[in-house]
Amino acid sequence: MKKTAVIIKGNPKLVEGNERANAFYESLKVFLESLDFEVSFDSGEPYTQPPHADVWIGHSRGSDRLRFALPEVITIGLGVPESRGSTDFPVVNHPKDEMAKLVFQDGKIIKEEAVQMFDDSYHYILTEEMKEEIKNIIENYKKVR
Questions:
Q1: What is the pLDDT of residues 83-98, one digit of tens each?
Q2: Which of 7, 19, 40, 82 is the least crowded, having the fewest Cβ atoms under 10 Å away?
Q3: Contact 120, 99 (CB under 8 A)
Q4: Which CATH number fits domain 3-144: 3.30.70, 3.10.50, 1.10.10, 3.40.50?
């Protein structure tokens, strides 16, 4: 049986029709396929549960869906801002991703400077280092199980 992965997309207002976002999600899909995963996408709509899979990767706001994963599902957040309280999954961010530098508590921005527009250029870039981190998280999870 083939391993499965679901990529949970970020805020539709930011990703729909966004060529950089489309390229980012496609590169993530190709990378996961290179690790022998059958990959599908989930729109990450609030209060929804993505389909069952071996791995769920939540990008940006899509990481909020990770809380619905069963214990056997490997969960990884990409482009995820710091959230005070309940991030119980590993996070892989581009080091220059300004969008991931916001700080939230209970779903609300708590850093005053966060109200300005942030450059999202690096929010939709998947580096070789990030791929290696994702691969290591998946491999280490298998060892623990």
A1: 655 567 899 988 888 7
A2: 19
A3: yes
A4: 3.40.50
